[in-house]
Amino acid sequence: MTTPKAVPPAPPLLIADGLRKTYRLPGGDSLAAADDVSFTLPTGGSVGIVGESGSGKTTVARMLVGLVRPDAGTISVDGRDRTAGRRRGRGARLARAREIQMVFQDPYLSLDPRLTARQCLATSLSLHGATDVDGRIEELLDRVGLGSREAAARPHEMSGGQQQRLAIARALAVDPRVLVLDEAVAALDVSIQSQILRLLVDIREDTGLALVFISHDLAVVQHVTDETVVMRRGTVVEQGPTERLLSAPENEYTRLLLASVPRRGWDPAAAVRARRTAAAGGARH
Ligand code: ADP
Ligand code: MG
Q1: What is the pLDDT of residues 20-34, one digit of tens each?
Q2: Pair 42, 54 in one domain
Q3: Do 266 and 227 have their domain in common?
Q4: 63: closest CA among 49, 51, 52, 53?
Q5: Residue 94's CATH number
Q6: What domain range includes position 40?
């Protein structure tokens, strides 16, 4: 038998290594919003970050896109460190934006109310020096399933789902390598949620875009991610392949999150019991 020549694995697209952000609270106490958070993401990969409210998910997202500077740790894309010796200026900022884009929970707050969908995309494309702006606009609208009627509409004339499609299109306009979605479907109806999730899965398959998908809801994350990071109170309590996490969670907290995920054979009473038991356990300490 011949052993196949070892092919070195492709280096990860995104490496988050030992990220920490501590906030000083009024009164002098400090709070580790995120502490020693590490994960990698291959090109076209998808990682989920889950945890209840306050676990540090948004802090990690903001560090990834550069809205918050980590106190420790590094973030690199394609081997380029985004955190060390940050170059300032418009060119550097735009180059960083092309690496990682973000979609927020509330699209209405992140869209300019004065601009139609078409104008919104044109603005983003021009800012990044795109050629054939009109052609790219049509492509992007098509990509996210917005028609010509929505293209001429302003945010207040759109549904929440349409607004979020536009926010995704605007993020895609710069051809990012990584898209960070922070609770991006949390405010939408369940049926609209699944439409947007399907859209993201398609875009990822077709373009090789990598996703960092953040949600308090493991049920949402399981459909769109290969790997999952479970956070609690700023720290990673468990991480690994999403399938393994769902089938054989090692951590008590992951099991608790899982108990509230509706699946085939899901028993709501068991979910409630698990929560009660955990709450009682917590109260003893
Ligand atoms: P999540 O997105 O998982 O709900 P966050 O990252 O928003 O969690 O918050 C994690 C913790 O950090 C929370 O306790 C929150 O109150 C705190 N926090 C976040 N941002 C700030 C800030 N700018 N100043 C002080 N504390 C903050
Ligand atoms: Mg958050």
Answers
A1: 999 999 999 999 999
A2: yes
A3: no
A4: 49
A5: 3.40.50.300
A6: 14-248
Q: Is the pTM of this model over 0.85?
A: yes
Residue ranges of the chain with pLDDT lower than 70?
Answer: 1-4, 85-87, 262-285
Ligand nearest, relative to CA of residue 104? 2
Atom 6 of ligand 1, nearest CA residue: 56
The helix or strand, by DSSP H or E, that contains position 141, with its residue range, turns out to be helix 133-143
Determine the distance separating the centroid of ligand 2 and the alpha carbon of 150, expressed in angstroms: 29
Which residues sit with their C-beta closer than 6 Å to ligand 1? 23, 31, 33, 51, 53-59
Alpha helices, H only, 146-259: 148-151, 160-172, 190-207, 218-221, 242-247, 252-259
pLDDT digits (tens, 9 = 90+) for 157-187: 999 999 999 999 999 999 999 999 999 999 9
Residue nearest to atom 7 of ligand 1 (CA): 58
What is the number of other CB atoms lying within 10 angstroms of the CB of residue 229? 25
